[in-house]
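User: I'll paste a sequence; please echo it back and then give the predicted structure.

Assistant: Echoing your sequence first, then the prediction.
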Amino acid sequence: MTVSSRFTRLFTLTLSLIIAALAGISLYAALALERSLIPQLDQKMLTMGLTVNAKLDRALRYGIPLERLPGVADFFGTVLAADPDLAYLVLTRRDGTVLYQYGTSLPKPEQLADATAATLKMLPASQGAASADSAKEPWPIQALTARPLGDFYNLALPVGSGEAVAGVLHIGADAGFVIQKIQEILFDIATVFVIATLVAFELLLLIVHHYLITPINRLEMVLSHIADGNLSHTLPVSRDETGWLARLLNQLVERLNAAHQQILRQAASLQSATPVAANRLSTSLAQLWRGFTLAPEGRPAPYQLADLFGARVATFLFIFAVELSQSFLPLYARVYATDLSDSPTPLLISLPLTVFTLTAALSMPLAGWRFERAGSSRTFTEGALLMTLGLAGTGLAWDFYGLLVWRVLTAAGYAFMYVACQSYVVAHAPPQKQASSGALFVSGLMAATICGPAIGGILADHIGYTATFGCAAILAACAGLMAFRLLSAEPMPAPPPRRPVRGGVVRAMTGNGRFMLLMLFAAIPAKLLLNGFLFFLVPLTLSEFGDSRSEIGRVAMLYGLAALFLGPVFARLADRFALHGLLVGAGGLLAGIGLIPVFFFPTTTGVLAGVLLLGIGQAMSISSQLALVTRIGRAPIEQFGQGPVLGSYRLIERLGGASGPLVAAGLAAVFGYPGAITITGLLGVVTATLFSVSFLILGIEPEPDDELSPIAS
């Protein structure tokens, strides 16, 4: 059994135990909540019934008969309006005749009569007729419990004047509503289970790689260097089992380098006294050390291995923080927009999302410049500080304009963190595994895309918008602290002087015909669909359909699920069979086609299918797009560096993506939300078709005889 298979089995066993524990906890929580729901509903119905009963009893004590009580139906309506969980209030005589009733749906009269008779039978005999002691006798507990009554749960309370029971008050809840509440609880538990499993997977993956696989790989690389005669590196000494061996190797390497430096100093001292002997000694030493690489000045540097999985976890955390609000951000913006207009337009509601995307796009080149000079760790930490402040401020925004300001700050932090992680992965990825390494980055992003909207919707439903943004700010701060440690591989060298090109890196990239085709017909439409459909139209459309924020989050979660599990598969296929261009085109077609049926089937299920196909389509294309950029932009990367080139790629991509909410809002104002979704899908189909035809004709890279062609320039 190989070491790799042992790691895989150990990892699988540990993850299985974690999943089993989470499944047990989720099942226990589901059963406990289901058992407690009916008693809680009973208590709510009883509390309301006693309150109403007290008012009715007061009227009876004044000698007003039940049949002549004024305004009872209106009073019932006011009570029910304060508690939408209840379906009706009905007051009957002792014989079951309905006197007053109010509710959206009501039981049949004969059912109420039967419930009235059953309630009176449970009462002590003395309460059925006049008795001086009747007020002292309590109602039996059976009469204070809701019972099934047709399609309802019904709680019947006797109404008495202190001398006799004059009638029965019925408080009802729809049985379908109760079932719906149980289903919502089960869905929430299932969502939390999925998210907890993904978080456990990410943390377990980090622990295994950071404390087990990475130290062993580092040890293996240094031993390989020593075997090849490279004595310029030492190992970081850890407290685990590899630390003892690392200390021994470091002592050996340091002694050899020190001995070499001592011999060089002695040879230099002989140079002035006996030049001939010194030259002979230098020649002998050169032959002796031939094939060996020693550290400059005899000071070996610690060998640092890039932690790509650390970049994945850092990506997971900060995207998680941003995605917490994606399922309700348009709804949150609509709350502030109503201060400016009683019926805010879709364009006004789209502004916070548009401002965020536009600011992130404009901040990408600055983030790339910062990455080249400060490295990943510092760039990410600076972004984390900006994002933490921005998210906290978003939750505490004073008005609509304040909301826009805080979204700008959040977007700037997002850009720094995104570029730091992505550039770190690209800079340290092996050339033959560009798409696979990009998929590692994307998989962390997609895992957060699954967790964020779903758990954000649940949190918003239970603790409100402000507290949810507070949780997001805490996550962003944790991401910064983690990246400060995990992305601290070898420091980025100072960028070498480059020959300036007129117009800079953006002009150099926009002058590349194939790059612009990739931007116009693949990258920009992908972001337009993501921002316009998933982030803007989905929350507003599902809210119009009557779905809760938790349900909106669960629908949005499907995008991340599809992209997470299928992204690595498509990335491996792209690397193995060189299918990058094909997958980008096919993914764009699939994403666009999935949105078209929503116009004909304007339901939650139709939107759900569109979100799922969007996730599958973008899983096919995202990592392959990044690989195409590095191939198409090879010359600009050699001239300007990867950071600025990728920053320019994200700039152009996100400038187009920033138009997504505006385009979607404009279409929604004219065609409604389902129509806007369909037209957005048609746009995706057209652009993906143009991309496929263009690269089918031109190819990914120019042929030697095409290098002077304008389209290839």
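The chain has three domains: 38-179, 228-302, 306-494+507-712. Confidence is low (pLDDT under 50) at residues 128-138, 490-503, 705-713.
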